[in-house]
Amino acid sequence: SFTMNMYLFVYDLIQFCGHSWIFTNMIIRFMTFGKDSLADTFHSIGLVMRLCQLLSVLEILHILIGIDKSRLLPRFLQAIVFSFQITERIIVLFVVINSQEEVQGKYIVCVLFFLWNLLDVIRYTYNMLARMGIFYLPLTWLNFSLCILLYPLSVLAKGFAICVSLPYFESFGTYSIKLPFPFTFSIYFPYVLKIYLLVLFAGMCFIIRNLFSERMAHLGTGNIKNKRS
């Protein structure tokens, strides 16, 4: 309906504004302060980044209740893919980076934010135009092709950020829990993160396969002809 389409357009617009502000802020700060700006990235844009990532949880709901009709692949599959991608970011951003101040000043945080926001600026630009029935082939190609290259790089950056954080979780005991009697085991959080690393890289194969399928669904010869017409 028109109301739902307008709601999705406003949602995409809000996300576009947020990620554009982050992306522009990062570039301007780097051009102004050089490498010194990298260590202060989280403190400068961390709040807006967290708000954008929390807001992105709504995208899973959009797919599940069927108001987002732009997905060509099965709804359940898309919900799984988006859930995994959004969960990745939330875990790394809120659990790994936000909880360890020592990690926030690492250069890998800047690299990770750059990759995330580059992808999202392109994605939300494409989404907004698609809501209005406007399809530019170069933008469509960029949206469904660049993610195949940048997503594995972002997974590597996430993995590196987790590895960098492990010594701090070991030293400070953050999130590690020793269960009281009668339980006889403890939850050592660095082990949880190491297991999550395996899940992260295993899930990457599934996500990349889905990205290729989505690219074919949108950039197949028939779809390109339909969008041109």
TrEMBL record:
Where is the organism placed in the taxonomic lineage, from the top? Eukaryota, Metazoa, Chordata, Craniata, Vertebrata
Record's subcellular location = Endoplasmic reticulum membrane; Membrane
**Organism encoding this protein:** Regulus satrapa
The answer to whether keyword Membrane applies is yes
**Gene assigned in the entry:** Hacd4
According to the UniProt entry, what is the EC number of this protein?
4.2.1.134
Bilayer topology annotation: Multi-pass membrane protein
Q: Give the GO biological process terms.
A: fatty acid elongation; sphingolipid biosynthetic process; very long-chain fatty acid biosynthetic process
EC category: lyase
Q: What is this protein called?
A: Very-long-chain (3R)-3-hydroxyacyl-CoA dehydratase
Q: Which family does it belong to?
A: Belongs to the very long-chain fatty acids dehydratase HACD family.
